[in-house]
UniProtKB/TrEMBL annotation:
Residues 1-20 have a biased composition (Polar residues). SUPFAM superfamilies: S-adenosyl-L-methionine-dependent methyltransferases. GO terms for biological process: methylation. InterPro entries: FkbM_mtfrase, SAM-dependent_MTase, SAM-dependent_MTases_sf. Pfam families: Methyltransf_21. Residues 1-21 are annotated as: Disordered. This is FkbM family methyltransferase. Transmembrane segments: none annotated. GO terms for molecular function: methyltransferase activity. Keywords: Methyltransferase, Transferase.
Length: 283
């Protein structure tokens, strides 16, 4: 992990102003906000360099968050420093290649895993694509888990199961740290006195009775080798994900232990986006 990290504040763990009780739609964009959102979606303002400040301008035109739809799923945008919110609000093609790779050819009963789920950029489309299967959404920040639960309820998803925990190679406790003050860039430090539970992925999946996995997405800020590699090496063959989207630490390389395990288990790199690599399990 590079850059300056700090501990999360209580608001970043539990939330500040409480709007969760207001029904979805309460904070629908007003007329002027809809115009600005439309402009953003069609211009350079939807790009990462501009999205954050432009989102703040839009949110300043009303009180409270914004209730929006992305890929036919409901999201409450809180207007905090969260790069995922900016993309959901302003870019209709946000992470399209990543999502399309994971969801293509998925059957209605497919199971998905979203490791580092935040407010559900991946989790909700996964669960909506496979309504008879299960989508397991895992996030170490309890605030993100709470907000994802609200979004999933607003979308009407009853097959999305949320686990509020960090994931590593052994059970334990940890603390959360944040970079760039962005709640989408949160990592776990394994410390015995930490307040965040740490679980193994295998234990979570067994608890949720997941025997097969169609697609798995993982973005946990440098903990990928400890969370995913041991699971893949010890999982039954039937439980190996058919598709994996994993954050890459460098544009042309992946986490070293995961890379070794992918090769050993016959995963093939089939593509990369700006932030992630796409792997598919060969027969």
């Amino acid at each position: 992990m590079s850059g300056t990290w700090r501990s999360l504040t209580s608001d970043e763990l539990t939330g500040g102003t409480n709007h969760e009780t207001a029904p979805f739609g309460t904070f629908a964009p007003n007329y002027l906000q809809r115009i600005l959102i439309g402009i953003g979606k069609k211009t350079i303002l939807k790009r990462g360099l501009f999205r954050g400040k432009y989102t703040q301008i839009i949110l300043a035109l009303s009180k409270g968050p914004l209730d929006i739809f992305f890929r036919d799923c409901a999201y409450r945008i809180w207007g905090e420093n969260n790069l995922i919110e900016y993309g959901l609000l302003l870019n209709p093609d946000y992470n399209r290649a990543d999502l399309d790779f994971l969801l293509t050819d998925a059957s209605p009963d497919a199971n998905f895993i979203d490791l580092g789920s935040n407010i559900g950029l991946y989790s909700q489309p996964m669960a909506k694509t496979a309504p008879i299967g299960k989508t397991i959404s895992i996030d170490a920040n309890p605030l993100m888990a709470k907000r994802l639960a609200f979004n999933a309820n607003a979308t009407g998803l009853n097959n999305l199961k949320i686990v509020s925990a960090a994931v590593s190679d052994a059970d334990g406790q940890g603390s959360l740290i944040i970079r760039k003050d962005d709640v989408a860039i949160v990592a776990v430090e394994e410390t015995s006195g930490g307040e965040i539970p740490i679980r193994t992925l295998g234990a979570i999946l067994n608890e949720q009775k997941i025997k097969t996995i169609y697609g798995l997405k993982i973005d946990i800020e440098g903990h990928e080798d400890k969370a995913l590699a041991p699971f893949l090496m010890n999982a039954p063959k039937a439980q190996l994900p058919k598709k994996i989207v994993i954050e890459h630490p460098e544009p042309d390389s992946d986490y070293p232990e995961c890379t070794k395990v992918f090769a050993k288990l016959s995963y093939v790199l089939v593509g990369r986006s700006r932030n992630n690599s796409f792997y598919e399990l060969m027969p």
